[in-house]
Amino acid sequence: MRQAQEQQRRLADLQQRRADLRVPGESPDGLVRVVVDGEMKVGDIEIDARAMRLDSYSLAESLQAAIDAAYAAFGERQQELLTETLGGSELVRRAQEGTLTPDEWFRQFGVDLSDPFRGARR
Hints:
Shape: elongated
Low-confidence stretches: none
Oligomer: single chain
């Protein structure tokens, strides 16, 4: 039970750290920079004055590239946080793939979900 509580605390910490993330992204031409926050919202858009010489299509491409870069960096950082919190184990890999069952996850912490008396014992 203590292991499960510790894991729950670590997961809560992971959620808070993810919520606090602010990850930048920049277009390949360096004319547009954006930041994605922990809610995956784009904010802090910076457009270099040189970008004003671009046609609207090119400016839109630069903006989209910066957003895509920020989302990719956010995904990488989120993966790093997950690995830091849960370790780079086989269980993490399987959870990411969606092939890990709840029974297998809880069994790691000594909890048998099929035991009808698991909550009654102390």
